[in-house]
Task: structure prediction
Amino acid sequence: MRRENYLIGVGFISIMMILAGCKKKDPPTVVTSEVTEVTISTAIAGGNVTNDGGAEVTARGICWSTTELPTTSDNYTSDGTGTGSFTSNLAGLTEGTTYHVRAYATNSEGTSYGEEVSFSTTPTTTATLTTAAATSITTTSCVTGGNITNDGQLEITARGVAWGTSHDPVIEGNHTTDGTGPGEFSSNLTGLTEATAYYVRAYATNSKGTSYGNEISFTTVTPVVATLTTTQVSDITPATMVSGGNITNDGGTPVTERGVCWNISPNPTIEHNKTTEGAGSGIFTSNITGLSAGTIYYVKSYATNKTGTAYGNEIKIITSISDVEGNLYRVIEIGNQLWTAGNLITTKYRDNTPIPQVADSITWMNLTTPAYSWYRNNSANKPLGALYNWFTVQTGNLCPNGWHVPSNSEFQTMEVAAGVPADSVALWGWRGTGVGTKLKDTIGWSVNTGTNVLGFSAIGSGYRAWNNSEFRARHEIVYFWSSTDDAINAKPEVAYYRRLDGSNHFIYKATTGKAGGKSVRCVKNQ
Result:
């Protein structure tokens, strides 16, 4: 019984072993992955061998074709052995073509395929681009360009803009060449014709051909005369002054000549007197020479381009004068008269004869002949002007050539122009509300109501009393001699004067003894 059992057991084991060795084998199971990173000639595919079918997988990969259900008889990759995921790089594809892909796996039982996946390679095209707006437009040039937003999957070998005077310009006509590759670029158009309409398109060339951006248009500048201003005149002397100009716009064409022109009448042009200060826009300076002393001039800057000559604003100036000693005096215009704007300083007559300087009070008080002194006999007060007695004025030789000490009547003419009512100008005493304010400088007074709007620049230079020769009223009062005495009223011992006080808004007229020491202004001969 025991031997029989043993034989039965051995037999069972042998049968099981035979059955195991005779187990059925199948082809592998494989899944096709999605296709990614598709270009014009490549793509990435792959698969996953999920079951080897009971036998070793000896080959796996992707097969593809332009027809459905590709097999390894078509194009295929070899991507190792065994089960699991794998990746396949497809190359040598044709742009813009639809392909069918299946993963495959091979074992001893045969080759299996995954499900079919389709994809299309990217097609190549001409580039896509836009045209930049035109900027920096002049008479003969402008700046434009373009932006290549898509190169069509091909290398951009040329780019730029095409332009012409007709719509839809092409590169067979006028065009720029502005490098290669995609992205933004700038183009400088030159050699254009002024006042002309142009049409522009950006272009880009790849192996597919040349494409164009949107069309833009612009018109070159119509040239005009320049725009400029005249520089304020400075450094005025009897014969020279300094001015200039600032050309802020050349009018679209280069400025070939610039400078200042001047004349003794309004609206000077380059047909009168002028300087020449080179070419181009911007600021320039002009030194004007050969002028006449104490003369009104009208000055303008000018700029010439191909369109013509333009002028800046007009400035009216008056050259200064000098006395025989070389002291300079600024000149102003009040009404139709020209006046010096500072007190006379000269110690000589215009014929170069010295004027006696008298310091002693007794001597001064008894003089009936010309004399001058400085305030308080101190030469440091020379900037205030000299104090002259009337006998010096009487010589008619005190002011520079072409100028004289104003008469009482000439003072009245000035006063009317300054604002004294005509019906009160002949009166004595304080007259003309606000006239004194206009004539007084804004400095040089202890109490100051001056605005100096007329440029007369009177300061409180003080005076020397006629009756005792005392020096008085520095910073408070100024007296001006006229050349007129009061002989008409049988008072030849006195002469007319004008007075301004720092705290008073009027101008004062009266007469006083000729021995008084007063300031002197000069008026131009007419």
In short: The two ends are 171 Å apart (CA to CA). The mean pLDDT is 94.
